[in-house]
Structure formats: structure tokens, C-alpha cells
## 1
Amino acid sequence: MDENLTVERSRVPLTKEDFVSDQMVKWCPGCGGHAILSSVANVFPKIGYKKENFCVVSGIGCSSRFPYYVNTYGFHGIHGRANAIATGVKIANPHLSVWIATGDGDSMAIGGNHFIHIIRRNVDLNILLFNNQIYGLTKGQYSPTTPMGSITKTSPQGTIEHPFNPGELVLGAQGTFFARVVDNNIKMMTDVMFEAARHDGTSVIEILENCVIFADKTHELITSKDLRDDHQLHLKNGEPMLFGKNKEKGIRLATAGLEIVKIGENGITENDILVHDQYSQDPGIHLMLAKMQPPAFPIALGVIRSAMFPTYDDMVEEQILNAKKSATIKSVDDLLNSGDTWEIK
Amino acid sequence: MTKKKNNVVEKDEVVVKFVGDSGDGMQLTGTLFSDAAAILGNDIATFPDYPAEIRAPHNTIAGVSGFQVHLGKIKIHTPGDLCDVLVAMNPASLKSNLKWAKPGANIIVDADVFEDKANEKAGYKSNPLTDGSLDNYNLIAAPITSMTKGALTELNVDPKTADKSKNMFALGIINFLFNRSLEQTFKFFEVKFKKKPVFINVNKTVLQAGYNYAETLEAIKTTFNVSAAKMEKGTYRNITGNLAVAWGLLAASERSGRPIFLGSYPITPATEILMELAKHKSLGAKVFQAEDEIAGICSAIGASFTGSLAVTTTSGPGLSLKSEAIGLAVITELPLVIVNVQRGGPSTGLPTKSEQSDLMQALFGRNGEAPVIVIAASTSVNCFYYAYEAAKLSMEHMTPVILLTEGCLGFGSELFKIPKVKDLPAINPPIAEANDKNFKPYRRNDKTLVRQWALPGTEGLRHRIGGLEKENIVGNVCTDPMNHQIMTDLRAEKVEKIADFIPNQELFGEKEGDLLVVGWGSTHGAIFSAVDELQKQGKKISQTHFNYIMPFPKNTDKIFKGFKKIIVCELNSGQLVNYLRMKFPQYQFTQYNKVQGLPFVVSELKEKFNQILKEK
């Protein structure tokens, strides 16, 4: 397994309890946040860094109460700015494992600018994007990911805005890691978080989260028991993209894009099915996968993209190291006395 | 040609102003002249004045760029009111600057470009060089364009290069006028154009040609000599305020052992600080050019949380964008230095002009009760010391500090006696120790009310802070009414207590008198010069100039007490004066204000002070 050498590892094995804070979790019963919290508490000891080396940063919204509920260093910021604050944390101290808890309002609307730029820079940290397609903390206004036509408190006649697909936004901003999970699959969420931690660069995990109060069953088309087999494609690197109750359906790359085919029909075999390559540098197929939406297609879950590119924080350190090697100015006294100076006796 | 003999007049001080189109190289010409003067031992102060446009339409008033330098054998406090020598490279620059020339001043122009069309474009109805309108000045109408071309014929350079080196011809004339050797400037060319030796030759040739031309010119009957000033012993350099801020912060980082992080976004007139710090990676400076002003300050807050000397630099509009985040630094009680190089406002306002109109915003421009330290630099040189002080107070007292400077300080330059970093005051941030059983995020030092700085990565100090109100000492989210009162009071008291750690307010002049002149920021030099002159006339007038505004020095009231009248002079509509009225209601403050994007001139201040002194 690759090790991220910049963060110091714990010498003693850690458990879930090491990361449980003493604060009362104040999310509504049934909120997807509980499952995310549980996954994080599962994965942090597994990642194996020292407890002190985790830092959780958030913005504003239901999602952003997250830092109070994890026993790490935590910073609860202001609306939309988690990505900017976390950028400063990581650049200033690259020896921290930085996690951002943010939502579809925080990162897609008020903090959209910081979201695309952190991704473009490829700062080595992990973004948990709680996407419940609604503003929960302000009680039910539509968000930039609310499906068009939705009736909400601020769209009594239905929204007339085209929603963002976070995956498209991430890949459009040259994202190096994008994964998608649903909040009722803790196993997959934990695995994906682990992969995000291993990835060097900005890892975005879109978590399709249910808001029981203001957008209940908003992801029903994906998560309901009847539909999930046909509407979820679980991606695994190196494996064919099969889905359906008996894995009888698959994704094939046709000239016009992706298409659904059935194994055994029209001479289709497993060999015709697209094999997932999450490490591909070219984001072409990753973008097609990220864009698939039910009911026409299953939604792609798991790690969609995990490509290696240099990280911003590594390059910062490298530039400083190089500058120090060749510098004639090694102290502020050197600096003050550099250039044109003269003495008066 | 035979060399003619000139009268040489000894001067204590002179003011020279270079003006031309914004592409004419006036900033460089002025800088070269003032640097050479400084190296020869003159005290100097400079004031660059240029438009927001990079290359505004040719030969228009809008496109005039200027650089003023005041040099002397005496201590120089301002870039000067009116100039003794005006170099005007085109009609538009003459038209807009003649009002700043003293009667009888030497006016040097490029006679080649005063053609009918250009004169008309500049707003002249006739040629000012020949219509007698300059009769009260000593006009030196030199055919600069054609002489420059002529000087370069043998070097075979392209017309564009020839045109661009005209400014060096003018500089040659000026050097002759001040009996200056060209050596220093030659040296500069050799360094600057090391990689393009052809330009060394071009510039040297043109500079020398200008000098030689002046030497043979009948129009120059008198030259000036400004001897070296009596300066304190030491090593000196020339420094602009923006450079001084950057270096002061680097010094504070080195002295405190806290790595410096700058999160910033380019904005006139503060960008030079960002560019300067970006150069110094060898000193460990981490400089992050953010996607906007908000990301600039928020990244700095993140860096501060991890233990960096965190800085964000900006100008007025940027400070507006940062307001919410400043509140976050207030409530999390993290150190943060916010440098605001003020410019004319509101909104985009006058980006390249100076103003003092962000004081109220610095003091109060946030939601909630959000006190921060506010300090203001008053000279280009003390930008170094106040940047250092801002960093020191911020880290030692765990609070944001707003450092106000101004465009004219940032761009202006002065002689800087180079200090040694070890002689600067020590900086001791309250960093929490690993595994401290007593650590609580909001446990405070009894005397200073300062909480500890617990850095992520430290064993045994895991904690959470953020923008929600926190329970006193413990640091959990808390909405209890009495707790909010306590925390609000503590945050305010902590900042007020800083008065115990800053120097007393100084007074220039007698402790008692008829008039006390109060100012802050860049106006120090102009007010000082005016007060000094009136004191010499026997008037009972004194000056006190504020660098620490929130909190005020403890002896402020005592100073006010000694005077019959107090006048507050500011380059805004009355911001400090209204703050003083609020803080010291027992005194009656009068005010003198100017909001023109220009500094005070000494004469207008003297006139105002005299008028007040006469009033019963």
C-alpha cells in the first residue's frame, strides 16, 4: 500500500473511540450526516496517522457542524470558505491530514469559487461534499444541486435553474480525484474515504445524502430497494462495469458515448463491457461516467477518477527548498543590506 | 563649443518633479535621480503620482504620470509642496502640473512635441512655449526628441528604442542642473541591463548627451548645489513603504520563529507587498495568491490556526470583502495581520491616489462586537516598524491587527537607516505546550486575557474552534446569554489592555499652548513642517500624531488637556475626529479635511492654523 509520507503515523493502533468527541451530535434523527460521521470514525484509525495530525475544516450549514463531532483538531469556518481556510492550513502545515466537511450550498453556491480553485490547484486534502440538494440549516430553500422543477420554500412554483452535477464541476476544474457514494452504504463510504486519503491531491467525495426534513427521499431513484440494483453502478478499478440484480447489464463505449447493454443479448459478452480505469490521466471516460443519471443510466458510485498529478503543497515545499539552496539572502539582515546601500560615518 | 560659466547657488532643499505620458518612463527617471541623490548623502522623500491606466491615451491629461522628489541637506519631512524644477515631457503634463511649480521655477520641456495638434489635445489654445504664458519661469525648451535621435544615430538603434530613451536625455539635463556626476546612474545601467549590453550603451549615450547639451546651453545660467545632509551614522538605503511593510513582516517572522504565510489578491496600491514577499522563499515565506480577497484572508486564517505569522494585504475595496473573515479571526482569537494600503474611495474610487478614508471601516466595519487593534504607519520608513509591531501585537495578544498605510506611503520612498534584526524587540507568542493537562481553548492569561495558541499536530491539545460563540474557558459551542456577555466583554477588554503594552503618545512642542494639531498616517510630515514653522514664529502650537488608534495610548487624555483648542487634520471627511469626539467627549475638536486624492500641502495647513489661532 502506498504511504503518504508527509503525515506522521501513529505508533499505536487507534480505534473508532479515539475520534469520537464528547459533543452531542445535533443532526436530525435519520439525517445522512450520522452515517458519514460513522464512516469517518471508521476510516481515521484505519488510515493510521497520529490523532493529532488530522485536521477537519468546515464552512456553514448542517454539514459544517461536522468538526465538533470528531475528536481531532477542528476549525468551523464561515459560509463557503472552508476550502479557502483548509488551503491555508495545508500549505502552512503539509504534515497534517486535512479533511473538509462541506455541503451543496457551501461549496456549490456561496463557495463555488473556492471549490473550483482548490481543485484546479490540486491541494492535497479531502473534501466530503454532503449533497442533500437542499438548504437544510436555513430550513428548505433550493440549492445549486436541487433538481429542476423542485418545489421548495423559495421555489413555490418549482425551480427554474439548471442544477450543477458536482462531478462535472470537479472534472471541469481538472480534478484529480472524484468519487461518489450514497449515505446508506457505510462500507463503500469507508472504502472510498480510505482511497481519498491515499490519493495525493484534492480528493472530492460527493455523498448523496438524505435530508429527512426538507428533501426526504430526494435520492430515492438511486437508493430505494426496488431501484438501486438497476440505478447504481458500483465501480471497481480493473473490473468491468456491470450492474443489475444479477450483474446482467453493463456499460459499453459506443461511438456516440456510453450505452447500456445486456450480457447475452445480441452476442454481447463480458468482453464487450468497459473496464474501469480510475487512474487514467485522461478524464474523458471519467466525465461520461460522472454524468450518467437515472433513469436513463445507472449512477456511477465509487471512485470515478484518481489520477496522479503533482500537488500544490508539494510544489510549494519544493520551491522553498530550491530557493534556500541557491539563495544569497539567508536572513532578514542579508535582505536589509542587499542592493544599493551606503554608509554614513 | 566652449564651456560657459554658471553661477552655483547653494540650496538647503529643492523639489524636482518629473511629469510625462504614462509610458514616458517618468517613474524610472525620478527614481534614478532620487536614488543617486540619496547615495550622495541628501535626505529625500519621494511621491509618485500616476494614473490607474497602464497606458492612457497619448498626450492627454488623463495619462499624465508624475514623480516628485524633495531632497535636502536638512531633514526632509514631506515630498514637498511646490517644485523648483519641473520636467514636462509633453503639453498635457505641463498643462496639468504648472500649478505645482514655484514662480521662477526651472521648466524643462521637450520642445519637439509642442506642436499645434498636441497643444490643442492638451487644452492649450496657443503654444505655451511661445505665447508668453511661461514668462515668469525659467524655460528650458530643449529639442529632446530630436537630440536623442541625433545622439543615437551612430548606434543604429530602432526608432522605438530611441523614443523610449528620451527620459534619459531629460535626466542628463537635470544632473547638470544639480552639478551631479553621472557615475551612479551609469552604474545602475550596468546592473539593470547586464543581459542586454546594447541598452547600457544607449542609455549612457543619451544621458551624457543631455548633460552635454545642458552644459553648453545659454538658458541655464544658474545651477544648484545641495550638499549632503547631516545624517546619523549607519548604513542606509532607500525604501518605499510597501517594501518596508514586506520586510518588517519578514523580520517579525524571523524574530518570532513563526513561519510567515501571506494569502493575498493583487490590488492597487498594495500589490507590491505581495510581489515582494513572493521573492523571498529562501526566507521560508509561503505566499499564496488566492482566487479572491476572501480566499486571501481565509487561507491566512487557516495558516494562523496552524501557527504561522499569517498576513493578508489589500486596499479599501478588498478590506470590505474581508470584513466577515476578520470577524472570524476575532471570535477564534487567532493572530492575523491585515495590511490596508488605503486609496481613494468609495468603491473602486481612485485606485492610484492616496486617502485616509478607511479608518472607520478598520475600527467598526464588521458585524457584531468585533474589536481589533488598529495601527497606522506615518512615513514610508516606519511602515517597517509598524508592520513589525502589528505582527508582534497580533501574535502576542492573539488578535487580528489592521495596519493602515496609504498609497503615497506605499509608493513613496525615504532614506532608511538599516536596523539589525536582533535589535528589534523580542516576540513571544503564547504557544501551548504538548500534553498540557490544563489546556482549554479559551483559558486566558490573567493579566493580558490572552488565550493560548495550540497548534494542530501537537500531542494532547486536540480542540475545535470556529465562528460560533464558544463557552468561556472550555471552548464548546454555547448560546447561553450570560456566556455571550462574558465572551464579548473579554474580547473587548483584551484589546483595550494592549494600551499597557504600547508606547506613550508623543508630543512635538510645548505641553501647553493655544493649539494642538492632531493627525494620523501619512500627513505627519506636512503637519510637522507647518507646526515647526509656526513654532519658530513664536506661536504656541504643538503637534501630536497618532500611530496607535485602537487602543489609544494611555496618556492621550493628558496631552489633550494642555491646549485651548484642538484641530484634527485628515485626508477624509472627518473620521478620526469623530472617533475622538466619541472617545473624549469632554473636548471640543475642530477639523480640517481634504478629500482630493492628494496630500496636504504645508502652506494650506499654516493658513488654517493661523486662522484658528487668530479666532477668539
## 2
Amino acid sequence: MSEPVTIVETPIKLDFSYTPGVASSRFLRSLEKGKIVGQRCPKCKKVYMPPRGACSMCGVATDEELILSGKGTVCTFCVTRIPTPGLDAPYVSAWIRLDGADITSMFLIQECDPEEVRLGMRVEAVWVDEADREPNLGNIKYFRPTGEPDADYDTYKDYV
Amino acid sequence: MSGQAALRRDVAIVSWASFETPSEPARNEVEMLLPVVQEALGKVGLTQQDIGFTVSGSSDYLQGFPFAFVGALDAVGAWPPIRESHVEMDGAFALYEAVNVLQEEGIDTALVYAFARPSRGEVDRTLALQLDPYYVAPLWPDARGLAALQAQAMKDSGRFGDVPDLPPTYVADGCVAVVLAVGDRARELTKTPAWIRGIDHRIEPPSLGVRDLTTSPSTIAAGDAAGAAGADAAWLHVPYPHQELVLREALGLSGATVDSAAGPVMVGGLERLAAAAAGIAAGKARRAVAHATSGPCLQQNLVAVLEGVAQ
Amino acid sequence: MTESVLVAEHGIEYTYTRSTGPVIGAFLTALRDRQIVGVRGSDGRVIVPPTEYDPVTSEDLSEIVPVADEGVVTTWAWNDSPRMGQPLDRPFAWALVQLDGADTGLLAAVDAGEPGAMRTGVRVKARWADGRVGSIRDLACFEVVA
């Protein structure tokens, strides 16, 4: 009859009611209101965005919250020339350090030619319309250039 | 290492803390774990910087995303990079690794923790993923169903008298943290160290059908290697009540007081070690057995023997 | 903490593709052909389903041995509320089935209808799935032999 079996497929599926935790819930709720909430470590004073309720360097709870502006600096970036579902190529993903934050986060950069994106470029968040906001990071559609002068290298050199 | 003979350096449980709730509503694993780790360290005046080795036990499948155990390191502060490890098992097996690492000169303290929030998923299905992936996992047997096969085999054997009915699989969220220290360091940290006089763990074949489910050869072997004979108290990890009967027989606990608990999956075994240490520290036991299990129908078993006096 | 906790339904799915190796492959190939085979262990026992290594001595095993598709239940447990993915969507018994010619138990579902039909020692016979592909699910379940 047919060939001997040498391969078997074993699909798995698990369902969860996921809860993100106290700090992340507050962060996601704030995004719904158009605000970006960070948390400051009481020990090393680093500001986490997104906050996770703990400083991963010090192992202490981060209770102090602060509102960050939606502006930041491009610390590094990548131009992708292969399209992906929902994104036409070329598109730019960048690690952005929000002003006041001590860690970088990845966002898209749009409203400019990919060739213009550079380290130190100043950018700002573009939000979805208020009526369409949900408690998730998708509320920030992308970042776009502010037109401000580039940041001094010293202000972001530790994040490149 | 096999049992007490190989413990060149005396290791004691010097501190512990734990938390358990039927279903943690709001906090995530890190937020749940952080105060427990702080409490265990704080009770003996330590911070993470004083810890020589950190190791955890958990299962990413319970959280539903890969490498979730790495995220849990947020709760201990892993910077500058610390010496750490993880086992995808109950935290008791992480403690076994810590006892081994503490045999090295220069590592005098260890932090062991375990955490789980199984209430967010369906633990009876999740545990199917620890089974043979060709023959068994594709049938998605529920954990309780497999335990029930063991209970029926015990009834059929006629050896156990009344075999308890099977309750639903115990589901709880929680975490536990245990601090270990070596020799004089342990004596500095607490007046009541619980010395680990022997520790061993053994495993049985993964095929349920080749095992005699009414006995636990792995517990017998681990108990012999750890020196469980003559214990006056035992803290047993018993996910389903009928399993206590198998464990009592395997460990020969006829004269000992026995405290059994299931605890949150991945956490319950390490909690038993902490509970036994608490029993030693409180003078409730002179020589205590602590037991932890993992896998279906008591497949893997760890036995430790704790005493209030060092060798 | 006045705001309610966010909850999202979250599913994970993945299809693992596994190599069978010669021993498991022989078993799954036989299932596709409505046959059941085991492997002879170091002590002469016939292990079903077959393992690549002896459970006691760890020796490599390779002697494939055909067994019957009928045998006896060595232990069982009634499952009142089948869960997603299990062999049957109506109440059934989990059982270890020792097939004629085998010395070990195979975990399977028995479509017994009601728990009163089950007991240790009851004879059962394989029911085969349609459209067999070389998987443990080719063995749909067992049924009690009248």
C-alpha cells in the first residue's frame, strides 16, 4: 500500500482568559484616554514604558506613575522592503525612546520618506480617532517626524 | 548526586514565603511573585545581591506564551546579570538543582521560587501537553481522568481499603519562594535552619500502561536514597487524595504524622519543602520527610529529609 | 485600583510536525492499515504501544510484534463531560486496554454508553476511524464486546 508513516502532525490548542496584570491594565486603560503612562523605579529611578509593575533590574515594585509626552527620539530603526499583511513595503520600524522614559519601544514611522529616517530624529505619536480607541497599543497608529532639530547624540547614545 | 552521601556541604532551608488563592483576579505572575520573594529574602535580611544562585520552576503553557519564565525574573532583579536557571517543572525540582549548585565552593546562598496562575486556563487540558506526544497527548486526556485510572487500579488491587473518591483537579493560583544557605552562612541567617540531610528524585516510564499504578517505585527509590526511613513527620505533595495511600506505603510512614496538600500546579511541591522546614523550625518534627511530585499518576517523585541539626 | 481588570480571550495553537522514527512509525503505519503492533522488550514482554527503548533496561528495541485489536480493560475511569479534543463528544470511559498478545496497557477511550457497562476485565474491541492517516486517532476508540 502507501509509504510507511515517518511524520505525524500533532496540533495543540489551548484557550486562556488572559489578564495583563495591574500595571499593564492601567497602562492600557490610559491609552484609551490618549495618555501614555510610565512607572518609575523607586530605587534606580528608571522610567518604564510600558510599565510592568516591577523594575526588572532592581526586582522592586514600581508604584509611582507619570504621564509621558507622546514625543520621542529615534534610537535605531530598520527599513523593511518586503510587504507584510496590513503594511505596504517599504515601511520603517524604529526603537523610540519617549521623552522621560528610560527604555525604548518599537513603533512604526510614517508620513515621511523611509530614506529620511535617521538616528536622533524627533518624532511624535499619531493616535487613532478618539471614538475608535480601545485599551491596547493599537491606539498609537505610528510616529511621524515633528520637524524639531535632531536630538544630541549624547541624549540617546546609551539606547542605540 | 544521589542522596545524603553526596552532600559534601550542609545545605539548609533558612527562609520561605508563600501565597495561594483560588483565583488571582488582577495581578499577573510578576506582581504576585514580587512580594513573596521580598518576604522570603527580607525574613533573613537578604537582598537579591546577596544571593549566589537563583532558580525557578514554572510552566509557560499555564501562562500561554513562550519564555514566560524569563519575564518572571522581573520579580527578582536580574541585573547585573545573575547566575540563574529554570526548570519547566514544580519548583521542588528547582530546589534540587539549587542544592547541587550549593555544593560548589563560593556559592553559599540560593533563592528558589515557583509560580503559577492556572485559573486563567484549563489546567486539566494544559497538563495533557506533558504526556507522550505521539500516543497520548493527541487524545487530550484530562489530568483527573488519568488520576482516576490510578484510583480504580488501587480499588481493584484490594490492598488499600477505602480508596477516596476523586475530586476535581485542584486549581489554585500562587507562588512560593525559599532561601537556601550553606553551613555557617545558614547559622548566621537563622536560629532555626532546616538542614537537608538527603534529597533525591526519580522518574518512571512515560507510558502509563507499562507502570503498576498502585505502587510508586520512584518514590521508594528516592526515599531510600534520601534516607526517609525513621522520619517522625511527613509533608506530602498529593495532587489527588488517593495518591496519599500510595505514598504512605512507598515511604513506610506508619509511625509518622502526615500533612498532605496539593497546592497550585508547579508550586505545590516546593510549598511542601517550605512547610516541612516550617515544621522543623517550629519543633513539630525532628526528622521530616518532604515530598514533591510531577507528571501523571505520580510519575516523578522527589524526596528530601530535613532535620533541625546539621550532620 | 478603581478600574476593572482587563480580560482578553487568548488562544494558542500550534501544529507540531514530528518525525516518528522506525518504531513509532511502524505502529502508526499499522494503525493506518487497521492493525496494531507492539515491540518485544528485553524481558520478552510485548509492549503496546511500542517504545523505542526498554522501559527498564533502556535497551534499543526493534522486534515489531503484531497483536490483536481486541483485549481486556485493566483499569478504567468514567468521563462524564468530555473536553475539547478528546476521542468522543459523549460520555465515555478512559481505559488501559491490554490487547491479546500484549503485556502492557494502551490508553484509549471506550464508547461504553454508560458506566454500568464498564468493569475491570471487560473485553473490548477496536473501532477504526474513517480516513486513517497514520495517527493514534486512527484508532477511534474501543467498544465493549457483547
